[in-house]
Every structure is written in C-alpha cells, then in structure tokens.
Amino acid sequence: MASHGGRGRSGGRPTLEEVAARAGVGRGTVSRVINGSPRVSDATRAAVEAAVAELGYVPNTAARALAANRTDAIALVVPEPETRFFAEPYFSDMLRGVGAELSDTEMQLLLIFAGSDRERQRLAQYLAAHRVDGVLLVSVHADDPLPDLLGQLEIPAVISGPRSAAESLTSVDSDNYGGARSAVEHLLAGGRRRVAHITGRLDVYGAQRRVDGYRDALRDAGRTADELLVEPGDFTEEGGRRAMTALLARHPDLDAVFAGSDVMAAGARQVLREAGRRIPDDVALVGYDDSAIARHMDPPLTSVRQPIEEMGRAMIDLLLTEIADRRPAVSRGLDRRRAVLPTELVVRASS
Amino acid sequence: MASHGGRGRSGGRPTLEEVAARAGVGRGTVSRVINGSPRVSDATRAAVEAAVAELGYVPNTAARALAANRTDAIALVVPEPETRFFAEPYFSDMLRGVGAELSDTEMQLLLIFAGSDRERQRLAQYLAAHRVDGVLLVSVHADDPLPDLLGQLEIPAVISGPRSAAESLTSVDSDNYGGARSAVEHLLAGGRRRVAHITGRLDVYGAQRRVDGYRDALRDAGRTADELLVEPGDFTEEGGRRAMTALLARHPDLDAVFAGSDVMAAGARQVLREAGRRIPDDVALVGYDDSAIARHMDPPLTSVRQPIEEMGRAMIDLLLTEIADRRPAVSRGLDRRRAVLPTELVVRASS
DNA sequence: AGGTAGCGTGGGAGCGCTCCCACAAGTGAT
DNA sequence: ATCACTTGTGGGAGCGCTCCCACGCTACCT
User: Fold this and answer.
1) What parts of chain A have a pLDDT lower than 50?
2) Would you tell me which CATH number, out of the four given (3.40.50.11540, 1.20.1250.20, 3.10.20.30, 3.40.50.2300), belongs to the domain B73-173+309-340?
3) For position B2, what pLDDT does the model report?
4) Where are the transmembrane segments (chains A, B) (predicted)?
5) Shortest CB distance from A118 goes to which of B58, B103, B131?
6) CATH class as words, domain B16-59
C-alpha cells in the first residue's frame, strides 16, 4: 500500500476509504453522503458526517474530476486586448458579483485570457479538452467565433451583452434601451430642446439599443428625431472629441448631449469647454456607465448606472442552471434564457 | 472496457495509452515525452510527437493531478472587502501582467475571493487541501493571518506590497520610497518652499515608505523637515479632505501638497478650491498611482506611476521559481527573494 | 572473458474518487 | 405464503495519469 508517493500515511489527508472505516460503513455510502444523495438513512448519514468532521475530510478534487468527468470549475474568458474593458470598473464590478454568487457553491472560478492568437489557440484546446464545466463570456465582438465554438462543443455558456437580438447563447444584459430613454427624458424634462447623441461602436448591440432608446424618447416626446443630431463614436475619449466637434459644427445651437459612455462624455466635455460652452448652463451633458470618471469630472457627470455586479450574479445563476441541466441552451431548442436588468440614472451637476 | 461512463470510445479524447499504441511504444515512454524528460531517444521522441499530433492528444489534467499530486494551478487571492482596491485600476493592471506572464506556461490562474469570513474559511480549507501549487497575495493587511498560514502549509506564495521591511514571504513591490522622493524633488525643483504630505494609512508599509521618501527628499535638499507638514490620511477622498483642511489651518502658507494617493489628492483639491487656492498657481498638487482620476482631474494631476503590470509579471516569475524549487522561501532560510520595481513621475498641469 | 555502469524502455501499481451492480432486508400486493 | 418491488448498503471496476522497478542492451573498464 505504501509503495507509491512517499507521503507518510499519517501526514496525508484522509481519504474516502478512511472516513468509511471510521464510520463503519462502505466507501459508496460515504460518497453518497458527501454528494448529498437522498438514498442514505438518517442514522448512517449522521455517523458519516461525524467521521468527516473528526477526520477533517476534504474531497480530493482531482480524483473526483477524473472519476466523474466533470471539473467543478467555470471559466471567465476575458478578451484582453480590450484595454478599455479593463480600465473601466466594469470588469471589477462584474467580478465582484460573480465571486459573491460563486461563494455559495463548490465551483471554482478560472480566469482565462483570450487576447493574443496564441492565447485563443490555447483556449480552444482548453475547451476541447472540457477542462471547465461552463464558460462566462464578456464583451464579445459580433464576429467572434468563440460563441459558435462553445455551441458546437456543447459547453454551457452565458454571455454578457448579447451580440444581437437573436443571440443564440444564454445572455445577461442591462436595459440599454431603457437607460438611454431615461437619460434623454431627464434632459427633456430639464427643458432641453436640442438633444444630441454620441453613440458607441454600432457593431456593439448595446450601443444600438441606446440609440433606439434615444430615438424613441424623442419621438414619444413629440419631436421628430433629427437624425443629424446623432454622431457615431467608438467608446474612446478621442472618439468623443471627434463626435462632439462634428456635432458642434453642424448644430451650434444644441443644448444637450447624451454620450454613450462616460469616457466619450469626457472627450465631449473637453471640446465643449474649448468652444466656450458652459456645462450645464449652455449644454447639459449625460454619460453612460457611472464610472469613476463621472464622479470626478468637473462638473460631476450625470450618468446611467448599470447594475454590473448584479449582472455578474445573474450570469452565474444562469450558468449554474445550465450546467445542472447538463445541456447548453442552444440544443434545448426554444427554451433560451435571457436576463435584462434595469439601469438607474444618477443625476449630478452636469445636467 | 466500455462498462463505465458511456462516452463512446470513438468520441472520447485520446489517452496516453492510445498514443502509445499508435506510436508503437509503451505508456511510460509517451509520458516521458509529454513531460519533456531527457531520457528518451530522438527517434522515439519524434514518433511519439507525431502520434500526439495525429491524434490531437491533450493530457487529462485531472488524471495528472491525481497521480502526481500537483495541480498546475495557482491562486490569486483577492481580499474583496477592499472596495478601494477594486475600484482602482490597480487590480486590472496587475491581472493583465499576471495573465501575460502566465500565458507562456501550462499554469492556470484561479481567482479566489477572501472577503467574508465564510470565504476565508473556504480558502483555508482550499489551501489545506493543497488545491493550488502556489498563491499570489495582493494588498494584505499587516495583521492578516493568511501569510503565516501559507508559511505553515509550506505553500509557495508571493506577496505584492510587503507588510514590513521584514516580510517573510517573497515579495514584489514598487519603489515607494523613490517614488515619493521624485515627487517631492519635482516640487522643490519647481520652486516650492513649503511642501506638505498627506499620508496613506500608516499600517500599510508602502505608505510608510512614501513618508520616508518625502522626509529624506526634504532633508537632502537642506531643509529641516517640519513634522507639522505631515498629516495622516487613509487613502480615501474624505480622508484627503480632512487632512487638507487640517494642513491649511496649521499652515496657511503652504505652497505644495504631495498626497499619498490620487484619491486623496482629489479630496485635497476640493478643499483647496473651496479655500480659494488656485492649482498650481497658489498650491502645487501631486498624487500617487497615476490613476484615471489623475488624468481627468481639473487640472490634470501630476502623479507617481507604479509599474503595476510589470509587478504582476514579476510576481508570477518569482512564484513559478518557488514552485519549481518545490519549497517556499520561508523554509529556505536566508535566500528570500524580493523585487522592487521603479516608479515614474508623470508630470501634468497641477504642479 | 567477466563485471559494472548507464541508457532507453515497458508496464505494474496506485493516486482517490464515482458509478453501478449485486444483494440483504423490509413492504405491500396477490 | 409467494412474488414483486423498494430502500439502503458494500465493494469491484475503472477514470488517465505518474512513478518506479525491472529488463535488455551497449559501452567501457578490469
């Protein structure tokens, strides 16, 4: 028995077998207790639990994974080249939600970076090897092949920010449409007459929805949306500057700007200031994300807060459900899951 | 042979055994090739590698972990209640460095949150179960029992931001002393005469070192450091406000402030502005961290940049070395490793 | 010639678990 | 009383790997 390894028998961690011996039952029974099977009598269960406690037994994950062909781990795949993604508190907040929700479970969170081609290669191998039970996908581009790969491999996956209205994976999103609406309605309620919008990258579905919200809010307020008040940005500060410059040139009389992100709002603010416009006196400004930038901007920026931490929680919830079902949503047919969480307008001095 | 599981034999992933059959060698030999043992002839190695490629063989991590009693995983332990820590880009940047350095290896990064007591409990169990080969510790308090636990369990660990000059774990740090010096020297070079310092929490070693750097810079410039120009803060915005208020009351004639963090600098700025002091005309202001806040402050804040991403890389480097040595530094006696990376002063309009 | 290394190799044993079959004992219908 | 079932239980077999012992072989010393 002691021919292998060299870990002395007293120093090593207790095994199932040892717990079984201690409790005076068989190995199978201990396994059933550990895994919460109902097919165990109360008396036996109590005896086993006592033995587990006395010995300080902790299951060996590797052995379990090998025997059961599951991993008890899920991967959070991070498309790292998106520096923007990292710099924003988005990631941290989501991570906090994910961590909180996961702490109730036995699941491990594995962080996988899929930035470079080499990393993506490795990820593909990873997934093919089924080294995780499920995958969390954040900020995926519309043309990313990853979601399809996951579908093929039948690996449960949840995506934050669906790629389109027809997203095939289970998804969690915040209410971009409603968030944009509330921002614009707030500006109109404040008496603003000519509200411009700097959009995010329009290949991002959420950015499209914000445009929709902006349009509908204006339309419902009885205005014919003047298309020329919409200027595309790209979520960067520089993009915000460019868009603001263009808007100002076309519409010197605008009195409000709704930017699709705080970062773009920061860029817009610079241009407005250089153009001599006072905020909020001449032009009201509203951002999106409610990031640290919004709080520290001068003047502090009104912004739409997304419940990012809650989104993280929701993602885990949905993923665990799918894993429990042992089948990805895509193969379950119509029963796709989708969660949309409400946003909140945080009003500050800029509007 | 097919009594277990149910994964049909053709659908399953190839095993060592199958590779061995294909290459016409024994199981042991394939294992040696996979693990890069030198005790294999070139011809055999080539044959095995061909078989591996043809079959698309990927080792089963669980089986390996079980047999070899190692995990090929390292944990990044995050003391989550430190919201400050999350909100700052510190975490993201470090993560990027860690990820980059790790992508060259087979190691997995595991994220473990150790915020609540329950999470800490779980973490302790985790470590006791040796479910990771090594641990990365970030922003640990001086009185945290975790480092000692790691030492006892003989788990290789690297800490970012040593807890004291006598840190027992391998550590990576930025040059807080030098960073503070450069900030103060910059202020003096700009003609400032009365330079105040708002410190971080002094139970944080790095904050102490910044105070040391501040003092020495003044002393070396021939001034007797006036202790009353030092006011303790706590890394928060509110703390910055309080400290600035106190400093202004005691020293209405101060003409420069070096804050131990950008967030505190933001607080200080508010107070200075309310007191009618212009920045940088009346009072120059320098922060620490070079965070997004610094860039977006009005005026943009001069700040000390820490090479956080590089610190992440260095931590992985050191940790992998320790794991390779298979013994934590603490038991190797005097041979402790410690890396200190240089900072950089980013000069902006506030000074 | 015999001895003694050392290399490269094959394969047994074992890591700690889960799965499942077999079986004993109890329960109720026939 | 017989024949089902059901419930709880024990333990064999196997997951895919690593470790290590044993073996055949070559090379070089006595």
Assistant:
1) 1-10, 327-329, 332-334
2) 3.40.50.2300
3) 31
4) none
5) B103
6) mainly alpha
